[in-house]
Amino acid sequence: MKSPSGTIYIISDGTGETASTMIRAALVQYSNQEINMVRCKNIRTEDQVIPLIEEAFECRGLIAYTVVSAQMRSKIRDLAASKCIPSIDLLGPLLTTLDLYFGVANSVPKAGLLRTVDEQYFKRIEAIEYTVKHDDGKSMAGLDKADIVLCGISRTSKTPLSIFLSHKGWKVANVPIVLNTPVPEELFKIDQRKIVGLIIDIESLQRIRKNRLERFGQDPGGEYASISNIINEIEYATELFKKNRKWPVFNVTDRALEETATEIVRIVAARMGLPESVLY
Predict the structure, then answer these.
(1) At what angle do helices 70-82 and 46-58 cross, to 10 degrees?
(2) Contact status, residue 22 vs residue 49, Cβ threshold 8 Å
(3) Greatest alpha-carbon span in the chain
(4) How confident is the model at residue 113 (pLDDT cuts 50, 70, 90)?
(5) Is the domain of 104 the same as that of 146?
(6) What is the pLDDT of residue 108?
(7) Same structural domain for residues 84 and 212?
(8) Does 17 share its domain with 106?
(9) Which residues pair with 38 in a beta bridge?
């Protein structure tokens, strides 16, 4: 194995991931070089910078930095120049250009914002993946990891609500209530404060089911959309909810998805002692 032919010090007020990615992309052009990268995270004071400059000087390294503070960028640049250390500001020119473009030259940038955005993004993706995997009772594994569990008969907006909430960062599982079929035992082994029941009125449900059957070219006059079957399903679900009084029940009849989702989050968050926005 070849010994490193150089060392690049990454100085960042966040994680240094942005600089690391950019440098790796550039190093593709230098495939014959073995480069050692040292990532220095959360560097936000001049006292933190000075020993890093000394270390880079001793190693005859190169400094690349992504720092939003203009004062800190100037300090790094000046200290590196005083030691004849090559340095590159990967973020400053972009920030300066954007300030001019948006007319906000006096803006005060905040360190670490990109990391915050990244954390929100990955939390949202994780929530969506969990929710898709636990849609319509497909999997009971990891049910305890859900933030919210929705229970209801067919066409009570379980899936649309689940997906909507997952885009807000909530891990949601939804479990169908099927006539004369016991709900999964796993449901009673998790924190009951997470569980929410969904109900709808008879006429609305019949209309929704008939429309769905017609849309898929099926007979709307079958048992699935019959009044008698719907009454039995609703009564069965209502009895289940009465037996489990810890489950708040939401009537989704003619309610906007966003309105129901907001109410569910408000209730569950209050019961669990959580903030209403899980992304922050």
Answers:
(1) 30
(2) no
(3) 86
(4) low
(5) no
(6) 60
(7) no
(8) yes
(9) 9
pLDDT digits (tens, 9 = 90+) for 20-74: 889 988 988 888 888 899 999 999 898 999 999 999 999 999 999 999 888 899 9
Q: CA 14 → CA 145, 161, 256, distances in Å? A: 29, 35, 40
Residue 53 lies in a domain: yes
Q: Do residues 158 and 176 make contact, with C-beta atoms less than 8 angstroms apart?
A: yes
Which residues are paired to 125 by β-bridges?
none
Residue 280 scores a pLDDT above 50: no
Please enumerate in sequence order all residues whose Cβ is within 8 A of that of 228, keeping only pairs 6 or more positions apart, or say none.
none
Other Cβ atoms closer than 10 A to 60: 11
CA distances 251 to 158, 214, 246, Å, are: 12, 25, 16
Residues 94 and 158 in one domain: no
Residue 280 lies in a domain: no
- Number of domains observed in the structure of the chain: 2
| 67 in Cβ contact with 113 (< 8 Å) | no
Q: Which of 92, 111, 130 is the last residue before a domain boundary?
A: 111
Cβ contacts of 44 within 8 Å, gap of 6 or more: 13, 69, 72, 111
148 and 203 inside one domain: yes
Q: Is the same domain home to 20 and 62?
A: yes
Looking at the structure, tell me whether residues 164 and 229 fall in a common domain: yes
- The boundaries of the domain holding residue 245 are 120-272
- DSSP letters, 58-120, are HTT-EEEEE---HHHHHHHHHHHHHTT--EEESSHHHHHHHHHHHT-TT----TTHHHHHHHH
Contact 87, 81 (CB under 8 A): yes
CATH number reported for the structural domain that contains residue 247 in this entry: 3.40.50
